Amino acid sequence: MVGLRGSAATVAYGSTKWAVRGMTKVAANEFAEHRIRVNSVHPGYVSTDMLKANSEASNDAGTLATPLKRQGTPQEIAALVAFLASEESAFITGAEIAIDGGWTL
């Protein structure tokens, strides 16, 4: 979630996410001549084991900060990745796709 908007006290984590954005653009340019598409997926609060390390209050706050007022599911992320890997997305490259319930709005 930090990858598409800055958040206080997340310099190390945020830096790596911003790096993914840059690498997506550079790799998409470099590999386009080989017809290789490169896109990045930026999930928001997704109901996974990673969130279990957070306090319930922290997870509740993250969920409430999400305009859709819920956590995503791993299946929703997988469906987006499957679409990007399919020929249905053949004209998409260099995209940064937020799947975050509107958190980055």
From TrEMBL:
Which InterPro entries does its entry note? NAD(P)-bd_dom_sf (IPR036291), SDR_fam (IPR002347)
Coiled coil (UniProt feature) = none
Q: Which domain of life is it from?
A: Bacteria
Q: Which UniProt keywords apply?
A: Oxidoreductase
The protein's matches in SUPFAM superfamilies, at most eight in alphabetical order, are given as: NAD(P)-binding Rossmann-fold domains
Under the heading Gene3D superfamilies, the entry gives: NAD(P)-binding Rossmann-like Domain
Family according to the record: Belongs to the short-chain dehydrogenases/reductases (SDR) family.
Output the PANTHER family linked to this UniProt entry.
DEHYDROGENASES, SHORT CHAIN (PTHR24321), ESTRADIOL 17-BETA-DEHYDROGENASE 8-RELATED (PTHR24321:SF8)
This one is known as Uncharacterized protein
